[in-house]
Amino acid sequence: MSSDRPIRGDHRYEQHVDSPDQHEERAGKSLITTDHDVIRQWAEERGASPATVPGSEYDGRPGRLLFDFPGYGGEELVHITWEEWFDAFDERRLNFIYQEHKKDGQTSNFFQLENPGRDS
């Protein structure tokens, strides 16, 4: 299931992606999406699983949303379902900012979750 929620905030330096068929214009380009299929495909291509930090949950819901990448020491992370991850992502109205490749063409694991409605 994909999110129909539009990207919020000022993102003139990122390329908007709303389909798994869309890809970066050039290596190293920052991409932004709220599309569940895009996010899941990106994570699964890297062998990453949806996760959260233990102790960060509130009201029985996942707290800090992360991905557990193989080989990166995520032993202390708690794996959650995709449904739990996306429910929290949508409830918080987050944007997913990421890269497909580094400038040198290598696969990138860079991502960050942004809450454009949150005051700095």
Mean pLDDT: 86
The low-confidence runs, each spanning 5 or more residues with pLDDT under 50, are: none
Q: Which percent band covers the strand fraction?
A: 15-25%
DSSP summary, beta strand count? 7
The oligomerization state is single chain
| Portion of residues within helices | 10-25%
Task: Please explain how this structure is put together.
- This is 1,4-alpha-glucan branching enzyme.
- There is one protein chain.
- With 120 residues, this protein is α+β, with helices and mostly antiparallel strands.
- The chain has one domain.
- Helix content is 17%, strand content 19%.
- The protein is built from 2 helices and 7 strands.
- The mean pLDDT is 86.
Present the secondary structure layout.
Layout: E1 15-16, E2 31-33, H1 36-45, E3 49-52, E4 65-68, E5 78-79, H2 82-91, E6 95-98, E7 111-114
Parallel strand pairs: 1-2
Antiparallel strand pairs: 2-6, 3-4, 3-5, 6-7
Summarize the structure.
The chain is an alpha+beta fold and 120 residues long. The protein is 17% helix and 19% strand. The protein has helices spanning 36-45, 82-91, and strands at residues 15-16, 31-33, 49-52, 65-68, 78-79, 95-98, 111-114.
Characteristic key phrases:
120 residues; alpha+beta; 4-stranded mixed sheet; 3-stranded antiparallel sheet; 19% strand
